[in-house]
Design goal:
two-stranded antiparallel sheet, 133 residues, Macrophage Migration Inhibitory Factor, alpha/beta
Length: 133
């Protein structure tokens, strides 16, 4: 935990996704007061014509960022994270703001497990000062 999943309307080069995953993990760690090594990023490339934002006039190609995170951060902090992730994804994958949306699912720390570490603890701001293993 955290798990950041991007549902994308096309296919992208592996190196672009690797660089973006690195950037997203650092954005997450800085804003959400944790360490980048806790972050996992997934890219689900649904392909051309398989993801649409409806409303307004005609549907437009869309991309969705889903963030599974430990609860405890205030709305302003999550908003700041969403803005940072949208910006990074837009730049790296040539997506426009209107194409992107961000959703959050919040969990208690003990609802996630990592081999060698066990169940996660509940989040606290002090976590940002822990050196990643």
């Amino acid at each position: 935990m955290p798990y950041l999943q991007l549902d994308l309307p096309g296919h992208y080069p592996i190196e672009a996704k690797r660089r973006l995953a690195h950037r997203m993990s650092h954005i997450f760690a800085e804003i959400m007061q944790t360490v980048p090594s806790n972050v996992t990023v997934a890219f689900r490339e649904l392909g051309d014509g398989n993801l649409w934002r409806c409303g307004g006039h005609e549907p437009v190609k869309a991309a969705v960022i889903v963030c599974d995170v430990r609860r405890g951060r205030p709305p302003k902090q999550r908003t700041h994270l969403a803005e940072g992730l949208v910006s990074a994804c837009g730049e790296a994958l040539d997506l426009h703001d209107v194409q992107l949306s961000v959703g959050f699912t919040q969990h208690a720390g003990d609802e996630a497990y990592r081999p060698g570490l066990g169940l996660y603890a509940d989040w606290t701001p002090a976590e940002a000062h822990v050196i990643a293993s």
